[in-house]
Amino acid sequence: MSAVDAELVEMMSAVFAAHREQHEPGEGVAELWSRLDELGLVRLTGSEESGGSGAGWAEAAELLRTAVWNGVRIPLAEHDLLACWLLDIVGLPVDDARRTACLLDDDGAARDVPWAADSESVVLLWQSATGYQAADVAASSLSITAGHNNAGEPRDGVRVDLAALTGSPVPDEAVAQFMRRAALVRAVQVCAALDRILALSVAYSRERTQFGRPLAKFQAVQNLVADIAAESALARAATDGALAEALRSDWSSPHLDFLVAVARSCAGHAASVVVRNAHQVHGAIGTTKEHRLHEFTMPALAWRSEYGSVAHWDEVLTDHATGAGADGLWALVTATGG
């Protein structure tokens, strides 16, 4: 992936850091959204012709990382990378409304839709008798049941009468890409949370003393932190590799489904080790509201199960491996297979 401009990253970080100093996680979203909109960050990857900033996924991924690093929860990915992208794909207009997106089942329902109750409009995706359809529907006209994930982020139920919907046709490949994009979004966010957990654990182990020595001097603590670092690095490498291939191939690589599954599996399993070890390093203080550790451990555990559970992605990997067979497994792993 191409390097992201350092000044842009610094500006992103400053905005999120300033917001987090004044607000608890999940609070002041409307105020922050207005600020990000002024800076051209709300539709970072949208084309300039459609009112976006014309940036790419590399910049969008950095935006997500800086938000997570600062403990800020806001539907930037759902709005820009999923909902507005779908509207661009099907040729529907995009206005200033805040959006999310979801895939409906045959009964016109979707569970755990991110930020639906907080959105002004929801881009609905469903399969009709003639193929997939998409429509941009005002949230006020939908039946929305408010809910939350374990990190306290809005994850709502959405229901609509499919017979009353009029949609625009969506190519099957666009639907597949929607799912890949959503899966990678969560992998990027999980990795950012794991990186922040590592930083917090390193800092705490150096600052906290026990029996007259910093915790970092104890071999047991060193082992815990080393495992956090190793698992975080593995998850990040897998996720960066999948994202790089997606961008290189414009999301059309025949290896992408496998690479996305690798990223999600690695990030999911890494979250278990990182969260467990980090709480062991921090001890009782890490479970209190006064310490920020929970702002990153809880989202990491919640995000790893969205857009496919860890078990789901492990099963996808198993299917790829068994499908390749003994003769094709090496080519699959090295992404040189056909």
From TrEMBL:
UniProt entry keywords in alphabetical sequence: FAD, Flavoprotein, Oxidoreductase
Pfam families in alphabetical order: Acyl-CoA_dh_1
Signal peptide: none
Keyword Oxidoreductase in record: yes
All copies of domain Acyl-CoA dehydrogenase/oxidase C-terminal, residue ranges: 179-302
Record's keyword annotation contains Flavoprotein: yes
Essential cofactor(s): FAD
Family: Belongs to the acyl-CoA dehydrogenase family.
Protein name as it appears in the record: Acyl-CoA dehydrogenase
Originating organism: Mycolicibacterium setense
